[in-house]
Design a protein that fits this description.
The chain is built from nine helices and twelve strands. It is α+β, with helices and mostly antiparallel strands. It folds into two domains: 208 residues, no CATH class; 147 residues, 2-Layer Sandwich (Heat Shock Protein 90). The strands form three sheets. A five-stranded antiparallel beta sheet has the order 2-1-5-4-3. It has a five-stranded mixed beta sheet with strand order 7-9-10-12-11. Helix 5 runs antiparallel to helix 6.
Length: 457
């Protein structure tokens, strides 16, 4: 196995252009060899057929003349003849042959027994002199056995075949060279954009974030589609890097605020002796900021976990039970604020991950109770295999400039970052919707705000 694996490994290490040219050369060699072989066989067959026809006709005329005891007729140009008795003695012969027998003893015995012998004398390659094709047959003349040998020279036939071989070899070599050159130029032209794309990717890796591949706009082939795909990927990577940069900056700011407040509270408490009441108030303030940090950290971890679809586990759950479990913790908050929460949930089962969908509904209710006024309404209905869950309030609605970024992380309707909330509630809601294969949409209804979840269930 190892000797075969080494050439393959060496071949795989060659440049792609070299491998393509080798593949073209090998394929063209096989095609040209097959074509040349077919042409040579057809021409050789035609020449041999003509030579055999001439030889058979000449031998037949010799057979008749010997059988009748007549004078031997002349044959084609360059033909030879020989008449032998049953013991192989030469009775009559062409002047060029003198008394040299053309048949071997084995061939003579075969002809005496009635067989017809056909044989070539000399070879096509290497070139030999006096190349012949002969036929020998037994003839009876005056009750005695005679062996008639007729031969014709193959010089013209062999010369034509050698010339054909030379021309085929020359034409095949030129064709192979031309095909290899065309294959090389084609491969280079086809892979030139790939090399250009590689250079662009290398520039991006070297720290040029705005680099984009130069893709021709007047083409639509595999290479240009690859370029468009890579540019799209680069756009996605750039957007992702920008989101990550903003996320890190916002997260740092969000974490810095409570930490700064805690440090200030502690510095004030340590600056001079405090009473037990003052220390208790300081600890309560610090605890509030700690709870805010914990909530922010948990929200960030939840969003990060939702980024992987592997953390989503669907199961059948009763929709009214799911909605009630999400609404229950917020009813007391609504009562304290003198507000009402109205729920309309279809009596059906859905296929969803209740672990994530329940807190998403809770976030929508919390936003409506915190930023809206009046009655909060939650409707959940299923149509055509999709769950449509909508939470509305009767408040002033979202600021118009806030709607396009309502689901961004740390996005807040108010400019201050010191108010309640982390700005991650709606981002979490959208992450839950996307993880379920659905969408989230925020809008103003004219009587307040509305956030809608549309999920396959």
């Amino acid at each position: 196995m190892r000797p075969h694996g080494r050439p393959r490994a060496r071949l795989r290490r060659l440049p792609v252009v070299t491998r393509l040219v080798l593949a073209v050369a090998v394929t063209m060699s096989l095609v040209l060899t097959g074509t040349a072989g077919l042409v040579y066989w057809r021409v050789k067959t035609a020449l041999d057929q003509q030579l055999n026809d001439d030889l058979t006709t000449y031998r037949s005329s010799l057979d008749r003349a010997v059988g009748a005891g007549a004078q031997l007729p002349p044959g084609p140009s360059g033909s030879l003849r020989q008449v032998l008795d049953g013991q192989g003695r030469v009775l009559r012969s062409s002047d060029a042959l003198r008394h040299q027998p053309l048949l071997t003893p084995a061939e003579l015995n075969a002809v005496v027994r009635g067989a017809t012998v056909r044989r070539d004398v000399g070879s096509l390659l290497p070139i030999t002199a006096d190349t012949l094709r002969l036929q020998a047959r037994r003839v009876t003349a005056d009750g005695r056995t005679r062996i008639v040998v007729a031969a014709v020279r193959r010089g013209h036939r062999d010369e034509a075949l050698r010339e054909l071989l030379a021309q085929l070899a020359f034409a095949s070599a030129l064709t192979l060279i031309a095909a290899s050159y065309v294959g090389y130029r084609t491969a280079r032209a086809a892979l030139r954009p790939v090399e250009r794309y590689r250079g662009g990717a290398a520039a991006l890796a070297d720290g040029s974030p705005n680099t984009r591949l130069d893709v021709p706009a007047d083409r639509d082939d595999e290479i240009t589609r690859l370029g468009h795909t890579l540019n799209h990927m680069l756009d996605r990577l750039a957007a992702s890097a920008e989101r990550e940069r903003r996320f890190v900056a916002d997260a740092s700011h969000e974490l810095r605020t409570p930490l700064t407040l805690m440090r200030a509270e502690l510095d004030v408490a340590l600056r001079r002796p405090r009473s037990a009441g003052e220390l208790t108030e300081t600890l309560r303030s610090v605890d509030t900021e700690v709870q805010r940090l914990i909530g922010l950290s948990n929200a960030l971890l939840d969003l990060e976990e939702l980024g992987s679809s592997g953390h989503l586990t669907r199961s059948s759950v009763r929709l009214p039970d799911l909605v009630e479990a999400a609404v229950a913790p917020h009813r007391r908050t609504a009562e304290r604020a003198g507000r009402a929460v109205r729920v309309e949930a279809a009596d059906t089962d859905i296929d969803a991950d209740a672990r994530w969908l329940r807190p998403a509904i809770g976030n929508l209710l919390d936003n409506a109770l915190r930023h809206g006024t009046g009655t909060v309404r939650l409707t959940a209905a299923v149509h055509d295999g999709r769950l449509r869950l909508r939470v509305t309030d009767e408040g002033p609605g979202f600021p118009p400039g806030f709607l396009p970024r309502a689901f961004d992380r740390f996005a807040r309707a108010e400019a201050s970052r010191t108010g309640e909330g982390s700005g991650l509630g709606l981002a979490f809601v959208q992450a839950v919707a996307v993880a379920h294969g659905g969408t989230a949409h925020a809008e103003n209804t004219g009587h307040g705000s509305a956030v809608t979840l549309d999920l396959p269930c």
